[in-house]
Amino acid sequence: IAIEKGFTKRYILKSNKKELVRQIKSSFRAVAKDKDLVVIEGTGHAGVGSVFDLSNAVVAKMLGSKVVIVSSGGIGRPIDQIMLNKALFEKEGVRLAGVIINKVRPEKYEQVNEIVRKGLKRKGLEVLGVIPYKELLSEPTIRQVSEELNFKLLPCAANLEANVDKILVGAMAPHNALNYFSDRCLIITPGDREDLILAVVGFQRDKAKSGLRIAGIVLSGGIRPRKGIVDLVKRAKIPLLLAEGDTYSVASEVHDLKVKIRPEDSKKTAIIKDLIENYVDIDILRRHL
């Protein structure tokens, strides 16, 4: 079921729960055919979907699924969130297979791993794994920035799979901005700031031998630089994107972009597999399933 804009409003005014249930069960049967195991990804906490009578907890019960709760790193907040979700699932008679704590900062990993396990054990919950935070998994690629935010890729665009490690708004004079340029940074600047664009190209050429690369340039205001400038960016192999909004709005959109792992993200997929193998007890999970 695709929850598009206006869906919940239409449902409240004229509910059609039976049809939604039919669609969910039909889709599940099609996916589960000839499969030993089906992983159903929930959308947020256990109560999401309550507005149209099909919360994650209700759907889990409907499909006869056990649940693994995944919570972000920490101690107090994750335990509070897990217990709240546990109550909603238990209200529907859904069994919990265990808990996974995700995105734990490396510098706090040992402490969180020890304390959160003890805290949840007191609550009768088994921790299947505690996974450290990997920054690369939260970094968008230039292609994702372009596709998700509908920024136009100019013909010179190259290295679209480059990851963005840092977002920099280019507003100061070029000689000052140079102090802030760094490897894999995405620079957002108005399209008529040709002085800054040239500074980025110069930085790229100067640092190329050391392996540093500018992730890309986003030109705000829908302003396209002169052809000669675009050609220089192309020769430097820096991705160039064109956005219609003002610089602040564009920077905010990029900052708020939710990064999702795509099938073609082979490097990220390999990291995730490694994390699961090293930090999640699959044998215990299998026993609980």
UniProtKB/TrEMBL annotation:
UniProt-listed Gene3D superfamilies: HprK N-terminal domain-like, P-loop containing nucleotide triphosphate hydrolases
SUPFAM superfamilies: HprK N-terminal domain-like (SSF75138), P-loop containing nucleoside triphosphate hydrolases (SSF52540)
DRTGG domain ranges (all copies): 147-255
Protein name: DRTGG domain-containing protein
